[in-house]
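cron nightly-structures :: item 1 of 1
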Amino acid sequence: MSKTPLVIVGGGLSGLYLAYRLAQQGRDFLLIEARNRLGGRIKTSSSHDLGPTWFWPGQRHMMELVQELDLQIFEQQNTGDILYEDPNVFSERLSGHQYQTTSYRIQNGISSLIDRLQALTPSPNIALNHKVISVENQTDTIEITAQSNGEIRNLTCENVVFALPPRLIENTIQFVPDLSAGIRNDMRAIPTWMAGHAKALIRYQCPFWKDHNLSGQAFSRIGPMMEIHDASSYDHNYALFGFLGGSGIQRKELGETQLKGLIEEQIQRLFGNETPQPLEIIIKDWSQDPLTATAKDMEPLQTHHHYQFPESLKNIWDGRMNFIGTEVASSEGGYLEGALIATEDILVKIYRK
């Protein structure tokens, strides 16, 4: 069986960016991804992002990468007033000046970043529909067992880089020899970015909120959407999107049909009864995605977690098993920027070998 110098497990932004940089250097590697697509939590529908949406001024890795790939960006629309509601306040209109901070979006959605990276990475070095089920450390190799289209595939490599959330790795992959209790506890303790969240996308024929000098932003203590923004794309696909409240368990019990009905009611309650009917409502609940979330991720994070790389995850199997991803970034954890920083850090280690 041929031996690959490096296997990357996970084809989200971190894993694919690592593959792209290694390909530029002429390095030999194989990237395997459980889904039938690349991007991980980056997912776009009709130019609208169902996963991460923004990056911000000062996040230089993201800015430099979109420039390198010749992608076009635009500022998030937030001009106009905002709306607010709670059990005691009915659709109050507030000045939006304090919320007019600058954030950037990529034309045609963040998935266009993934598409460009994939196009520039040799296709023979990428294997989709490969779900890793076990990893075994042998004398001078690492043996990876993956399930692909109902069949088992065995891979032999010298080094493995996991570009997956640590909590998901710990929950779904068997290790031989087993990882220590301390390592497992540290992996379980790292919340998976976005795993407890759900986004609702509401598409319209026109941006009706702009006719009333509204930004499209709204904040609610009633729900089901707790925060709403203008999701319209640069190519005039108009939409609002909202972060759904409640836990993954609560949303699952409600069901998608009932949730969509509640979303329509909330939009009319906030923006008025003359609000036009949406073209469609799309819900992406990441807590129900088994390739993203575990049972520990059913509750969404209430604040932005302070991510850091646990000491216990360093130098496993004599440094032949490594981890990248926004959850283990040295800075900007929980952002797209963090995913790139974590990859840049591991590239330094790889180039030294």
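cron nightly-structures :: done
The radius of gyration is 21 Å.
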